[in-house]
Design a protein that fits this description.
Layout lengths: L1 H8 L3 E9 L2 E9 L5 E4 L1 H4 L14 E5 L5 E10 L4 E5 L23 E6 L7 E15 L6 E8 L12
Antiparallel strand pairs: 1-2, 1-4, 2-3, 3-6, 4-5, 5-6, 7-8, 8-9
């Protein structure tokens, strides 16, 4: 039930604004994964990976916007270019957090319903639905010369700005 999934989890989905200096910036999605303020996203949202830059560098400033409109500064905890994942952190004292539990990717089967929540094209709190099209795919990485192994292919629309969302 997509409406139930959205109602249960949307408070834990955030929009991430990353600034790299000058006019370089990025926008993507993420989701709270701990009461300590950890937010999971894609590394290409918080770094210059995937661009023409020779060396990857993290954002100099990050802001996280919650579903209720509150915005907080965030800091980079780390990133993994090979899996295109990144972790950032907000101060948990500054906003009530609604962590979203991680799923079990080994239990995913073709045909299972999926819901993607994020901020496509900067439109916060958006929901897209579909089904799992395939499992155990190897797909080209956006952030390295290697492929991402064991990817789950879905047919829900994922647009610019959805990156990093659940």
């Amino acid at each position: 039930d997509p409406a139930a999934i959205y109602a249960r989890t949307s408070a834990g989905v955030v929009t991430i604004y990353a600034f790299f200096g000058g006019s370089e910036r990025a926008q993507g999605s993420g989701f709270v994964v701990s009461d300590q303020g950890h937010v999971l996203t894609n590394s290409h949202v918080i770094t210059t990976s995937g661009t023409d830059n020779e060396s990857v560098r993290g954002a100099t400033r990050l802001y996280v916007a919650f579903a209720d409109g509150d915005r907080l500064p965030a800091s980079i905890v780390g990133w993994d270019l090979f899996n295109d994942t990144g972790v950032i952190k907000v101060d948990p004292r500054n906003h009530a957090l609604s962590p979203i539990p991680l799923g079990d990717s080994d239990a995913v089967v073709v045909g299972a319903p999926v819901a993607a929540i994020g901020s496509p094209f900067g439109n916060e709190n958006s929901l897209a639905v579909g089904v799992v099209s395939a499992v155990s795919r190897s797909i080209p990485s956006l952030t390295s010369a290697y492929s991402v192994a064991d990817a789950i292919q879905i047919d829900a629309p994922i647009n610019h700005g959805n990156s990093g969302g659940p």
